[in-house]
Amino acid sequence: MPPASRTATWKGLNLSAKIKSHPLSSQEVYHNTRPQSIRDLKAEESVEVGSVQDVVLKHTELRIFTPKGKSPAEGWPVFPWFRGGGWTLGNIDSDNGLCTHIALGASCIAVNVNYRQAPENPFPAAIDDVFEALQWMSSLESSKLGVDRSRIVIGGTSSGGNLAAVLSMKAALATPPIPIVAQLLVLLVIDNTALPILKPWITNHLSPFLTPARMLWFRRNYLSNEEDWHNWSASPNLASSELLQKPPNTWIAVAEYDLLAPEGIAYGY
User: Fold this and answer.
1) Of 115, 108, 92, 179, nearest to 146 (Cα)?
2) Residues sharing a CB contact under 8 Å with residue 220, sequence separation 6 or more, in sequence order
3) 137: pLDDT strictly greater than 50
4) Rg of the chain over all Cα atoms, to the nearest angstrom
5) CA-CA distances (angstroms) from residue 57 to 62, 140, 173, 176?
6) Exposed, middle or buried: residue 206 (CB in 10 Å: 0-12, 13-18, 19+)?
7) Which string of DSSP letters, residue by residue, matches the chain?
8) What does each C-alpha distance from 208 to 149, 211, 213, 253, 255 come to in angstroms?
9) pLDDT 10s digits, 213-244
10) What is the pTM of this model?
11) pLDDT value at position 262?
């Protein structure tokens, strides 16, 4: 039986890009990313979308999934998604299936953001890359793909949720600020100062998959300098109270027995 879930709610770059159609048609993406065994997550089965395009920026790459049908007059809402994987695992193909479902179900452009990974590219490379992606999506360049720049919602899972939480505050501090309508944070990493024998980890230290040892391995790949653990760009819960008021409306999902659940709940409140 899957663990129960809880939710809480709370309230200088080069923007030129190389845009190319995906080498596979949207139908081929659908067939080629379907699960090959029962072990694959059913949620990652792909559905056919209107089009799939890749955009290459200076440091990162975007895979853009556009819904079928006619674009609204003002353009499609856009949802950049940041994958999990401990800032270490995954690639541009990792969440193709999920992004097709988002595009279809939410009638929006879903964007799979491929950020640089640790340990080869440690902190702050990943956060720099997702900020670069957000800057592009809020620029006139993105309008060529039918994006409504006034309706940006960001989201991510695990380490990707960490990047989204940080990005929402960096967007508010940008000059000019980059408006984000909302953010969706799933099983997110919030406190990179947490240790196995202390709160919040002690609550779920027997977590069946993401153990304290495994989480520390991911953290040390990304945050090799322990001084960075206390930087709010790595641990968003350590941002100032004033800065913590700046993120948009936020939806948080945690799994009851996940190691990261207590910090996600605390961040929500």
Assistant:
1) 108
2) none
3) yes
4) 18
5) 8, 14, 22, 21
6) exposed
7) -PPPEEEEEE-------EEEE-SS-HHHHHHHTS-SSTTS-GGG-----SEEEEEE-SS-EEEEEEPSSPPPTT-EEEEEEE--STTTS--TTTTHHHHHHHHHHHTSEEEEEE---TTTS-TTHHHHHHHHHHHHHTSHHHHTTTEEEEEEEEEEETHHHHHHHHHHHHHHHSSS-----EEEEES----TT--TTSTTGGGGTT-SSS-HHHHHHHHHHH--SGGGGGSTTT-GGGS-TTGGG-S-EEEEEEETT-TTHHHHHHHH-
8) 41, 7, 12, 18, 12
9) 999 999 999 999 999 999 999 999 999 999 99
10) 0.84
11) 95
Compute the residue count for the chain.
269
**Hey, how many other C-beta atoms are within 10 angstroms of the C-beta on 116?**
14
Pairing mode, strands 18-21 and 61-66: unpaired
Sign for the CA dihedral angle at 111, 117, 123, 125 comes to: negative
Calculate mean pLDDT across residues 195-205. 89
Domain ranges of the chain: 5-268
The CATH number of domain 5-268 is 3.40.1160.10: no
